[in-house]
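Progress report, Aim 2. The chain analyzed during this reporting quarter is listed below.
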Amino acid sequence: MRVARQAVACLSALVVAPAGAVALALRPEWRTGLGERLGAVPRSAGGGLWIHGASLGEVRAALPLVDLARARGHGVHASATTLAAREMLHRERPDLGGSLAPLDHPWCVSRALSRVRPRALVLIETELWPFWITEASARWIAVVIVSGRLSERSTPRYRRLRSWIGPSLARISAVGARSDLDAERFAEIGIPAKRIEVTGDLKLEAPATSPRLAEDLAEALADMPLLVAGSTHEGEEIAALGALAEAERRGIRCALVLAPRRPQRADDVEKLAGTQGRRVLRRSRLAAERIGPGSVLVLDRVGDLPAVWGRARVAFVGGTLVPVGGHNLLEPARAGVPILHGPFVSNAASAAKLLFAAGAARPVDGAEALAREACELLADPARAAEMGASGARALLAHRGSAARSLALIERWIEPSSGRAG
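Predicted structure tokens for the chain:
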């Protein structure tokens, strides 16, 4: 089996290397963190947990699990797929460190595992990387998925690939699924039902501490009623600007905060707001300024949005008016803010369903509906506060997913646990 893996590794390296070299020459920014992606992650003392999440949402959701594991005496190495998520790890848990995950190539994952030497590889949500799982299992490292999620769209794709990824999936020690439906879907793609249990959604777990708003941001926002449009994509900022214009037409005093999902788009978002005749402030260039009625603040740094949600009167969560699938609905819910979102919420379906049932979130089908619903809530602070409080209460019932996830992991790192085979 190891000979076969090495053959695959050699063949894939020969195929991919030329294209990779060209890509690095054309896109120098891709060189950032390349050593870690090739397996040169920081060394650890070994024997701990390697906890991995893909992007900001998954890594932020993993933090309560990270904190609980460390409090229980486990060493933790944390990793992310995206640079933004790794930077968040460095910022939120500077003593933890954190690295980029290795590319899913036998040589890269072998090098990384040799440097970290974990007892368990803990994958958040849907990080089903065949070579990483296979190599970890071959080293008798337990592979545990927690907060496991499979969407309605991705499940058929995994079923079609079952003949290819099936052997890797068979090596997964255990799955802690978010819900009964997710548990059923993991069984559908070939993971034995006896290895699956429902441990809950880590994104529903409240963090140990609330995000703190930076002093200059707190000063800039002051007491201005805010519509905060977070994690937005192209096409959604113009809808939020339309809601601001409608609020002005109705005589509602408010301002708008725009937080594009990719901070690299901040220049384009600033220009767009400027073409609407708006006074635009940039987070990175605040200088004792205050946002005024009708003004727009563009968040162009990663990490500010979670705290800014807490100052919103109304939240619009992006990736939902365009077919992206939606982003984190739970951060504004935890902050006690009423939520508006579009129809595309496949990536956050359980959260959308929960918050809608609690009366904390309203779906909108386009820019006109967004403007209408936002204005209603901006004009009625008591109703907005009532909706927001409903969402915060709904999440309280879902505490404990980090503890249940850690209990599942610990069962597989006990000396008598054995391994999946």
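DSSP finds 18 helices and 14 strands in the chain. Confidence is low (pLDDT under 50) at residues 3-27, 416-421. These observations will guide the mutagenesis work planned for the next reporting period.
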